[in-house]
Amino acid sequence: MATHVSGARRGQGRAEAVSPWVAGWTAAAAVLMVFGGIMAIFVGIAAIANDNVFIVNDGFVYAFSLTGWGWIHMILGVVITIAGVALFTGAPWARAVGVALAGLSMIANFIWLPYAPVWSIVLIVVDGFIIWALCSPRREPST
């Protein structure tokens, strides 16, 4: 069993038990956030630079220009990458921000479905895993 001294209790010398599984899932979520953010940046650049890369579906309810979607994906990708790196450093705000950004990414990828359906579905599933991993309980059950 691994122990972790929380920042608020460091002066008191009390340690909280952190499950190795939880630490592993958090690290996995951080890796997925970093790589997913970098890939979102590349998707954004592709949509901004060359609108012919993606198929345009006329009559879609959530119609934006591909350049607009490119900027949305690129900005979201940069912020997700930063939050993923912050998860590795143990920043206390990174878990909550990671959950919120994964939720925003799910929404963005749902709306992006007509342009890249397989990629969007894969990222929606990955974002769901990230939310699950970051919201899992932090303490081991007492025996």
UniProtKB/TrEMBL annotation:
Name of a matching Pfam family: DUF7144
Superkingdom field: Bacteria
Keywords from the UniProt entry: Membrane, Transmembrane, Transmembrane helix
DUF7144 domain sequence ranges: 25-138
TM spans (from-to): 21-49, 69-88, 93-112, 118-135
The protein's name: DUF7144 domain-containing protein
Organism expressing this protein natively: Streptomyces jeddahensis
